[in-house]
Design brief:
The chain is an alpha/beta fold. Helix content is 53%, strand content 8%. The protein contains 38 helices and twelve strands. The strands form three sheets. The chain has an eight-stranded parallel β-sheet with strand order 3-4-5-6-7-8-11-12. Helix 26 links the parallel strand 7 and strand 8. Helix 12 crosses helix 18. The protein is globular and about 90 Å long. The two termini are 46 Å apart.
Length: 806
């Protein structure tokens, strides 16, 4: 971790709002520096306290020292903005009227923009550039994810890209749109308590309160809106008096704060009368001036322009020596700190891994967007227009739950908020398509009953399948082209969806993809889930797997990090041992006989612990193969797909003892409950080499079957256990270097939940390219030539079009 990252995280991310409030209110620079050191010490164990103390001094005396003697007399939380000018000047340049990332700095840009957000860096850069070159900026409608200056790569990506793994609910700039909504309407009270959405804080705060009270998100929201509207007075209406000190009462006195919400909103509404409006006369953001609004009106990013204009005006006046701005800069620091604190609840910025951590983000992604506001009504337009980098781009959107294809086609898609003519049906038909995504059930309500596992949920899936077949046959401009199943995969496994996927392929010719191998109890469990998806869902050429991270995780690092310990339900561990044993046998994986005996003994112990009778590894294997079978077979189209046509499964059906074991697995409530009992176990040493060999075997088989894999680089970095983009499984699935023995899977690059991960498809390709440009051999020479990298990116780009369901 470099020192600039420590400063950025400490100053604008990890510093508790409660501590900053105390320091700004007391105008106490010494306490702020002491708290800065305490936070930095807490979060950076790789550096000694002496090193961090020197960094604190350097930050105060060098990094935040300015030429102006008067400004140098102000507290550190007023002078700290020099750090932003310093940092953004290293990372950004200007392309016409838009801030642009130096490609050589793209990976660092990604790191710092995750800490700070893009807009604060982009606007501070423009302000510093404007002062140096004696110019002003009034265009702020650049993309929510900045472009870069690598011209050859840009030419490749301008040929068109296809995103085949994009979830509609988070396929736009979630935080930017939420913040604009929040700052313009504080009367909309997000229901933080009864919805349970904010039971878990996603932000990681080193020292939560420093002994002071803790502020709720609702309180911080109101105070940020108050500070913002006072800065509007200062920056836009210089003749009006400001009263920032009122924010201390709003922070600490609940009765006063709640009583003044209407007054704050009234000021906002009054300012909005002077702001730029859409073609229906509705305000976009009270901070968006008519001049900047006219420049931005043809961009879908016009709604983000108001906040950017306010930031730019502050940084510009700060740079140009406005004493009133200097006087109140401590409040602006608080505003940015609060804004970043709330951003951490909506964008995946923490360092936790795993699907459940991501799910907290996913569940709250639109919690701050009022259901009757401008953003909500135009959400579909933000998704489509902001997701497409060029007019040649294609977008395959995942919808789910109660969303229907008919409802989606009833929406009117406009190029921007000021367009009169909607996008044509022909263009929508060419550019957009829909994949319906089943949400995996979080728990099995039939666990204590005699019915088949997930009985009620299976019935819901069946009913939805009938609806999907009807929608698939209709001539909508935006077509339903495929199905998926997404969500927490630990317990609701592919077997639950096997019948439905067989039925849809037979009846509707649906494209089929499946989220799998992204989250798992352990690596073997993840590999087994991938095999279950391929086997039980009968995936064939041109079907796809979503993520499949387990195929690319380094097993040595994985098991060493965990000291070979696993914790999971007994049934899962039994299944893992049985599956691993038979994969070793079937694929001639070199394994000591003692290891095979160990796996068999462990499986036998768990088998009897759960309550099954008459153990045999072959019976357990056959019973596992039967899990994708359904229980009824009749002459209806649904009934005719109850049983698999796969040869090995048909043969397993002949094993009567395996059939009985499968019935016990599915129906016996005691077996199900004992199987769900959690167990801890230490796996035998040497398991990592076997897993590595099996990963290679499975990649080869998936390649030979023609099954594609949807990769999502930033999503995989955030959810998986990968630290760098160059470590991603993508490069295992489709290596840069090939020989006659190399298995290559058709992989695409996608965004997943682009708003949660603050990315774009253009950005994802660019990050992969940047990682390849950085790779070096042991002698410090680059591993790949420019041409090899360009060819590789172009191949991945083409794969996205090839994978798209038709």
């Amino acid at each position: 971790m470099d020192f600039e990252k420590i400063v950025a995280k400490t100053l604008f991310s990890d510093m508790p709002v409660e501590s900053a409030v105390q320091c700004v209110q007391a105008n106490d620079s010494e306490k702020f520096l002491a708290d800065f050191l305490a936070v930095a010490r807490h979060g950076n164990s790789a550096f000694t306290e002496s090193e961090l103390s020197l960094l604190q001094r350097d930050f105060n005396e060098v990094w935040c020292k300015v030429e102006n003697k008067e400004l140098n007399q102000y507290p550190i939380f007023v002078r700290c903005f020099k750090f932003l000018f310093r940092l953004s000047g290293q990372l950004l340049c200007l392309d016409g009227k838009n801030p642009t990332v130096h490609f050589d700095c793209l990976l660092r840009w990604r790191m710092f923009s995750q800490i700070l957000g893009e807009d604060v860096l982009a606007t501070s850069y423009l302000a510093a550039y404007g002062k140096m070159h004696y110019c002003q900026f009034n265009y702020f409608a650049w993309s929510d994810v900045l472009s870069h200056d690598e011209e050859n790569l840009n030419r490749i990506l301008c040929k068109g890209m296809s995103d085949v793994h994009a979830h509609y609910g988070a396929s736009c700039a979630i935080f930017n749109l939420s913040w604009a909504s929040m700052m313009n309407d504080i009367s909309a009270n997000a229901d933080f308590k009864t919805s349970n959405l904010f039971m878990y804080s996603q932000g990681i705060h080193a020292i939560p309160t420093f002994g002071s009270k803790t502020y709720s998100l609702r309180t911080l929201w109101i105070v940020a809106a108050f500070i913002r509207k006072e800065f509007y007075r200062l920056l836009y209406l210089s003749s009006e008096e400001v009263n920032f000190k009122q924010c201390w009462r709003y922070l600490n006195e609940d009765i006063i704060r709640n009583a003044c919400i209407n007054d704050i909103q009234a000021d906002i509404n009054s300012f909005a009368l002077k702001s730029f409006r859409d073609r229906k006369g509705e305000r976009i953001d009270y901070a968006l001036s008519n001049d900047a609004g006219m420049k931005a009106k043809e961009s879908i990013h016009v709604i983000e322009s108001g906040e950017r204009e306010l930031l730019y005006r502050f940084f510009s006046k700060y740079q140009n020596g406005d004493r009133a701005v200097w006087k109140y800069s401590g409040y602006f620091y608080l505003y940015l700190l609060i804004k970043n604190r709330i951003r951490q609840e909506l964008e995946h910025t923490n360092l936790k891994v795993g699907f459940l951590n991501f799910k907290h983000y996913q569940d709250r992604k639109t919690s701050f967007i009022p259901k009757n506001g401008l953003v909500y009504r135009n959400y579909h337009n933000f998704v489509v227009q902001s997701s497409c980098y060029t007019e040649k781009d294609k977008l395959e959107l995942r919808i789910g739950g109660k969303q229907s294809v008919a409802d989606f086609n009833n929406l009117t898609f406009m190029p921007n908020l000021f367009s009169i003519t909607p996008l044509s049906k022909e263009l929508l038909h060419d550019r957009l398509s829909i994949v319906y995504s089943f949400y995996k059930a979080s728990n099995d309500k039939a666990l204590r009953q005699n019915g088949i596992r997930y009985a009620a949920f299976r019935n819901q899936i069946m009913q939805k399948c009938f609806e999907l077949v009807d929608e698939h046959r209709k001539s909508y401009p935006i077509r339903l082209t495929g199905v998926d199943a997404a969500g927490n995969e630990l317990n609701c496994r592919p077997e639950v969806f096997a019948h439905a996927f067989r039925y849809l392929r037979k009846i509707g010719n649906f494209g089929r993809t499946y989220h799998v191998g992204e989250d798992f109890y352990d690596l073997i469990d993840g590999l087994r889930a991938i095999d279950e998806a391929v086997t039980f869902l009968e995936l064939v050429k041109n079907d796809r797997l979503g993520h499949a991270l387990a195929l690319g995780v380094n097993p040595y690092d994985y098991y060493n990090h965990r000291r070979y310990n696993v914790v999971m339900p007994q049934q899962n561990l039994l299944d893992n041992y049985v599956w691993l044993y038979h994969q070793i046998k079937a694929n001639d994986v070199k394994t000591p006989s003692s290891m095979l005996l160990e796996l068999e003994n462990r499986a036998s112990f768990l088998y009897y612990q759960i309550g099954y009778k008459k153990f045999s590894m072959l019976k357990c294997w056959h019973a596992w193969l039967l899990r994708g079978e359904d229980e009824e077979d009749n002459d209806s189209p649904w009934g005719k797909t109850a049983f698999s046509k796969c040869v090995i499964i048909k043969n397993a059906r002949l094993d009567t003892e395996a059939v009985e074991m499968n019935l016990q697995y599915n129906h016996n409530p005691l077996i199900k409950q004992k199987g769900a009992k959690v167990i801890e176990e230490k796996l035998p040493k040497g398991i990592d080499k076997i897993v590595e060999d099996l990963q290679g075997v499975m990649i080869r088989k998936i390649s030979e079957k023609g099954i594609a894999i949807e990769t999502n680089p930033s999503s995989n970095i955030c959810i998986g256990s990968f630290e760098k983009y160059e470590d991603l499984p993508l490069f295992n699935f489709s290596p840069m270097e090939l020989d006659v023995h190399t298995s290559v899977v058709n992989v695409s690059v996608n965004t997943d939940d682009r708003g949660v991960f603050a990315t774009s498809l253009y950005h994802e390709f660019s990050l992969i390219a940047a990682a390849l440009f950085k790779q070096k051999d042991k002698d410090g020479n680059r591993l790949w030539s420019n041409e090899a990298i360009y060819d590789y990116i172009d191949k991945l780009r083409s794969n996205g079009f090839y994978q798209r369901f038709n």
